[in-house]
Design goal:
The protein is an alpha/beta fold. The chain is built from seven helices and 13 strands. Helix 1 packs parallel to helix 3 and helix 4 crosses helix 7. About 35% of the residues are buried. This is Type IV pilus assembly protein PilM.
Length: about 325
């Protein structure tokens, strides 16, 4: 009987992280989680510098996994090597026409042209003001893009190292998938989850803040603050970024009610951040660990495994 295996490999400043999931009926188990260190020659401040050394690290990862033949896996592109934004198009416009039109309009969203980028789009259910779309009969699309040159080099390194990339997507999307999966499940049990939930994913040098609304991630913001930021009070730096994000969202979308903050950091750092957030923010603050749904023996040690988990979940949820 063919096993239903899904694999994810994240490329971040914390290293290459590999997660293998297996679906059995309605349950999901983790078969393996492996980490390979990446030097600053390979990646720095969440941007790939050298794909030759990336190949060397991927080859080491392949040997650690120990499988024969090509290993099919979804790869995550670092935060600073990918772009995420939102675009409005007429509601009666065909999806393929929207995608073609973006080729000429991509530079209006990102510092890259359609000619030099790989990009993809998906329609999202964006919250409306009093039931009316803020721009009338328009649909809103999430747009993700990365430079062709870098993506081609990642593909080449992965294939040469013994992998078969099933997808390449921004790490940011993979991160939010781990929370969205659980929020959507909670919505079916508790109608209060219909409100907005802010999510913070602390990284070492760069972190991600997103907004989940009724199962859709409708806002992404990378922030230049991390666990290892050289600052006298990193916790206060995070609180400042959360406040700034809330002010921005309330200013542009005053009809969106945000009442929760998910801190995707269930260690001592996360606990300290939660204590400070609860004292200054008017939000229900929750420490969230997407690995809690797995048995203790299946969970990896340490932080930073959310992106690879989200990549492995890509074709499951």
């Amino acid at each position: 009987m063919k096993r239903n295996l899904r694999r994810g490999i994240s490329i971040t400043g914390e290293g290459l992280r590999y997660v293998e999931l297996e679906r059995e009926g309605r349950s999901i188990k983790c078969n393996a989680h492996i980490k390979v260190y990446l030097s600053q020659k390979t990646i720095k401040t969440e941007s790939i510098r050298d794909t030759d050394s990336l190949y060397t690290a991927l080859r080491k990862l392949k040997l650690k996994i120990g499988c024969f033949g090509k290993i099919k896996a979804a790869f995550g592109i670092p935060i600073r090597d990918s772009h995420i934004g939102f675009a409005d198009f007429p509601g009666d416009m065909d999806f393929e026409d929207v995608k073609k039109s973006l080729y000429w309009q991509l530079e209006d969203l990102f510092p890259i042209s359609g000619e030099k980028a790989y990009y993809d789009i998906v329609e999202i259910d964006f919250p409306r003001c009093n039931g009316i779309d803020e721009k009338g009969s328009f649909k809103k699309y999430l747009v993700a893009a990365s430079g062709k040159d870098l993506v081609d080099k990642i593909m080449e390194a992965a294939m040469k190292a013994g992998f078969l990339p099933s997808a390449l997507e921004p790490v940011s999307l993979a991160l939010t998938r781990t929370v969205g999966f659980h929020v959507e499940s909670a919505r079916r049990r508790d109608s209060s989850f219909d409100r907005g939930a802010l999510c913070l994913f602390p990284g070492d040098s760069i972190s991600m803040i997103s907004l989940n609304y009724r199962g859709n991630d409708i806002f992404y913001r990378p922030v230049m603050v991390g666990r290892k930021t050289a600052s006298e009070n990193v916790i206060q730096s995070f609180i400042k970024e959360i406040k700034f994000t809330l002010d921005y969202l309330y200013g542009f979308y005053p009809w969106i009610e945000i009442d929760r903050l998910f801190l995707v950091a269930s260690d001592k750092f996360g606990a300290s951040l939660k204590t400070e957030a609860q004292s200054v923010l008017n939000l229900v603050t929750v420490l969230f660990n997407p690995w809690d749904s797995f048995s203790s023996r299946e969970r990896p040690k340490g932080y930073g495994w959310e992106a690879s988990l989200g990549l492995a979940l890509r074709d499951i949820v």
